[in-house]
């Protein structure tokens, strides 16, 4: 098992979307390219039961893994931080993206 909060589940993808960049079912009459918006099913059979009623049954049911809060590297201090903690900041008159901890000001 993984030590962070990865989450797996089943999603409904539009049958006419590319498997490389699928369009996910995100609710009644709603589709999204963003997998974070996708409706997540715990069991494949439940996804299938819903999928047969959406988009004329033209769909794929796929297992999907969502990784926990994605870690990204702060441009300023080099720390690995959650993506949500990265913000646009202005440091030394330059706009950059940096974490909430250092706010773009590195302390060597
Ligand atoms: Zn930082």
Notes on the structure:
- With 108 residues, the protein is mainly beta.
- The chain folds into 2 domains: 7-66, no CATH class; 69-108, no CATH class.
- The chain is 7% helix and 38% strand.
- A two-stranded antiparallel sheet has the order 1-4. It has a two-stranded antiparallel sheet with strand order 2-3. It has a two-stranded antiparallel ribbon with strand order 5-6.
- Strand 7 and strand 8 (94-99) form a beta hairpin.
- The longest helix is centred in the middle third of the chain and has 8 residues, at 44-51.
- It is elongated and about 55 Å long.
- The two termini are 37 Å apart.
- It binds zinc ion (ZN).
- The site of zinc ion (ZN) has 8 residues, from strand 8.
- Residues 74, 76-77, 79, 98-99, 101-102 line the site of zinc ion (ZN).
Please render the helix and strand layout as text:
Elements: E1 7-14, E2 24-27, E3 30-32, H1 44-51, E4 59-66, E5 71-73, E6 80-82, E7 86-91, E8 94-99
Antiparallel strand pairs: 1-4, 2-3, 5-6, 7-8
This protein binds zinc ion.
Which features would summarize this protein structure in a list?
2 domains; two-stranded antiparallel sheet; 108 residues; binds zinc ion; 7% helix; 1 helix; mainly beta
């Amino acid at each position: 098992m993984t030590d962070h909060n990865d989450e797996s589940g089943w999603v409904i993808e539009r049958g006419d979307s590319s498997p490389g960049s699928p369009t996910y079912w995100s609710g009644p009459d709603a589709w999204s390219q963003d997998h974070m918006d996708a409706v997540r099913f715990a069991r494949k059979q439940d996804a299938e039961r819903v999928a047969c009623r959406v988009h004329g049954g033209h769909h794929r049911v796929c297992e999907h893994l969502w990784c926990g809060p994605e870690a990204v590297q702060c441009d300023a201090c080099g720390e690995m931080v959650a993506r949500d903690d990265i913000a646009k900041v202005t440091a030394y008159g330059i706009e950059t993206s940096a974490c909430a901890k250092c706010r773009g000001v590195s302390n060597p």
